[in-house]
Write a structure and sequence with these properties.
Helix content: over 70%
Radius of gyration: 24 Å
Largest sheet: none
Low-confidence stretches: 110-116
Distance between the termini: 89 Å
Mean pLDDT: 85
Shape: elongated
Number of strands: 0
CATH class: Mainly Alpha
Number of helices: 3
CATH architecture: Up-down Bundle
CATH topology: Methane Monooxygenase Hydroxylase, Chain G, domain 1
Structural class: mainly alpha
Number of domains: 1
Order of helices and strands: HHH
Strand content: under 5%
C-alpha cells in the first residue's frame, strides 16, 4: 500500500470519527448534559488536530467524503445553534442571579433609612 492510500484511509477513518462525535455532541446538547457536551467538544477538537496533521491526501475528492459532508454539515449547524441557545440562556440566568444579589445587597435601603 502506498502513502497516498494510507493517508486516504486515515482521513476516511478520522472523518467517520468526526461524524460519530458530532452525533454524540448533538445527543448530549439536546439532553442538556453540558459537561459531557464540553468534554466531547474537546475530543472532537483533537480529531480535527489529527486531520490537520495528516499528510497530503485526496479523500476530500471522493464521493464518500461528499456523502459524509451532507450528513455532517446540517448536524454541525444544529449543534452550533443549540450551543448558542444554551449559552444565551446561561448568560440570562447569570445576569438574573447577579441582579438579585445586587438587590439583596441594597435591600436594607440607603444610609438615610438607617438609624445612626
Amino acid at each position: 500500500m502506498n502513502t497516498l492510500e494510507e493517508a486516504n484511509e486515515a482521513a476516511a477513518t478520522l472523518w467517520k470519527r468526526y461524524l460519530r462525535m458530532s452525533e454524540e455532541l448533538l445527543k448530549f446538547i439536546k439532553s442538556g448534559d453540558i459537561d459531557m457536551f464540553l468534554n466531547l467538544v474537546d475530543q472532537r477538537v483533537a480529531i480535527v488536530d489529527q486531520m490537520k496533521a495528516l499528510p497530503e491526501h485526496t479523500f476530500r475528492e471522493t464521493q464518500e467524503f461528499q456523502d459524509l459532508v451532507k450528513i455532517i454539515k446540517p448536524m454541525d449547524m444544529e449543534i452550533m445553534y443549540k450551543a448558542r441557545t444554551w449559552l444565551n440562556k446561561s448568560r440570562q440566568k447569570s445576569s438574573a442571579v447577579k441582579a438579585y444579589d445586587l438587590t439583596s445587597t441594597f435591600s436594607g435601603g440607603s444610609i438615610i433609612n438607617r438609624k445612626y
